[in-house]
Design goal:
Blueprint (H helix, E strand, L loop, with lengths): L1 H25 L24 E10 L4 E3 L3 E6 L2 E5 L2 H5 L5 E11 L9 E7 L10 E5 L3 H29 L1 H4 L15 E10 L7 E8 L2 E5 L2 H6 L6 E10 L11 E6 L4 E5 L3 H17 L2 H4 L14 E9 L6 E8 L2 E5 L2 H5 L6 E10 L15 E6 L4 E5 L3 H80 L34 H8 L3 H7 L18 H4 L17
Antiparallel strand pairs: 1-2, 1-3, 1-7, 3-4, 4-5, 5-6, 6-7, 8-9, 8-13, 9-10, 10-11, 11-12, 12-13, 14-15, 14-19, 15-16, 16-17, 17-18, 18-19
Amino acid sequence: QDWVHAIAAALQKARGDALLATQKLLQDDTTEETTITIDSREGFVVYGSSMEGMLTRVQTSYWLFAHDEPKYFVLHHQTLSCFATKQEAQGNQQEDSFDIAGVSDYVVPNSNVQTGFKVHCRPPQGMGVEDFIVQLIAPSVEDKESWIRALKDAYDDGLRNAYFNDLLVHQDELLPATPVATSPTNEPIFYEGFVKIRRSHFTATWREYYCVVDGSWFSIFSNHEAYLSTPDKPFEKHEVVAITDWHGSLSMAVHHVFRMETLDDGYLEISVGTDGEKIKWMKILQRAATATPLANVVSRNASLSNYPGASMEGYLIKKGTSFRAVKKRYCVLLGTEWLYFNTQENALANQQPLGVFKVSTVAPYKQTSSITDSTVADHAFVIETSAQKTIICEAHNCAEKQLWIDAINSQLEKESKLLAGLQSIKEKNDAKVASVRAAVDTLSSVKAKATSAISTTQDLLAKFQEDISSDEDDDESKTLYIEYADTDGCCFAPEDSPMRRTSKNKQHFSSAIEENQRANMPFWQFFCRCFFRPPVHTFKQDDPLLTEDEKRFYKCEFYANGTIDKSL
């Protein structure tokens, strides 16, 4: 419908533009500067013609070849007219006319220059087959090409005009309907008219009948009078299942064909007069197919109850890819599980199924050359199981096949969504477990580092305590510093001098010679010594008790042998 609407709009726009251009020329709207291009119609005498000129008509048969005298031919729209002379064409005194149906090349016998062409025409009623073709010879090759081009354009224009006129006739049917208050589904399904019908096999013949669509039923009458006299007694009556387009007709006498599948009699091919009627019939029959109850479409006993929990059930012809026997089974779809029984009664009696398998995929059946059975491809579908097994199932009609495919795909989609949800939850839980494990690993690493640091600290504390205890043991036997003590007790040093400090153990470095010298020292010298006491030795650099830092602080012998007290 979208394509038809777009083409109709384009044709209307083109015609509107042409009419507007013509009106502008008639009203002299163009200025003086505007140049009007003159086409190749110079010398034409018939208004509106697309091609004119002298042509010679050839008469042929299996024993004769002859040609007439050259005549003046005029191509106007899709009609080719013949005149004796150009003056008669100007006076519209035609001898013959033809409706163009096509154009092709024509080889003139015994001629070096081929300027002939054939015009395929639609003859008047009652003329023979030879009258379909008119053989003509042009004066030159250039004239031949001009005539062929003009004839092809005229034929294409005629087809477009015919199609456009058909669109205009059925415009209300083809264009989208405007929304109304009532729903289209509430409208009654009814249509009638003459159509041509044949059975869906090669040798069937086309016959015209008067047909009526009422609800989901398609009734066939021999003629219109039979329908008016006995509308309740049709020649045939079928319940519509599906409608599809059809392009496989080999007959040239029928066009606009579509295919209808019935519930009990297979396929019927239907031909109507125009594309508009075809679309109208197909729309009505599509609604009739949707109005068919599902209980009538599915092959099962509707009087019996349904299998508990089944999303789809019914009889199918089960086939395998090997040359095994083809059997009719009652199949049940539980989720994505496929069960098949011998009969519907066995399934409802809770008997063990003949087979159970899990469905992985489903697809329509495609006929291949490797399978040479009687499978109807339009009614069959293929199931792939989880065990890599292929099963071909054939339904009673294509509507039932589509119901099975839709039901299986629906269950597969539900299972896929459920598995996707479970997988998403599992991935989230795995991510949480991984994060917890990472946190535990990090905590364990920190704990190990802390334990190592504590152990190192404890070792350092233990070593420090050992050093302190060893220092305390040394302090009990030695003084913190060493000072000289006067052997004679005649020391007049100040009380805050190192010589006056108490000590548990004082070292005496005075020799016997020094003691004799002090004993023989006069009183005044001893008295003056209290105020000035020069050291005996200026430096003692070889004292083993002093470090290098201590030696630089001592400049006299009085402090040379003492240990430095850090608190001073």
